[in-house]
């Protein structure tokens, strides 16, 4: 049950054809045919992007909005971490004072 079962190779079925024989060809010197080099084909012209004052102003406004939103998110995360750390510190001080007052009694 725990021994691996290896598959056996099946015997080839049908007729087996022998490989085709390739006969070498002779090269005669002096009969070179040169083909002319093809001319480079120019690709399709891509349209250039033109920045008008309106689109430049829209890009600057959009970039400013993205920076302000990302900045607000990062500042709020930092503020949440700071408030959490301060509350944990206050809890630690209160617990320490409670435990110290019990040892005095």
Features:
single chain; 105 residues; mainly alpha
Describe the structure.
The structure is a single chain. By secondary structure, the chain is an all-alpha fold. Helix content is 50%, strand content 0%. The chain is built from one helix and no strands. It has one helix at residues 53-104. The mean pLDDT is 83.
Note the topology:
Blueprint: H1 53-104
Helix content estimate: 40-55%
Largest sheet: none
Radius of gyration: 41 Å
The total of helices stands at 1
The counted number of beta strands is 0
> In whole angstroms, how far apart are the ends?
72 Å
How would you classify the helix and strand content by structural class?
mainly alpha
Poorly predicted ranges: none
Please, what is the average pLDDT? Answer: 83
Order of helices and strands: H
Q: How big a fraction of the residues is strand?
A: under 5%
Looking at the structure, what is the overall shape?
A: flat
Structure at a glance:
About 50% of the residues lie in helices and about 0% in strands. With about 100 residues, the chain is an all-alpha fold.
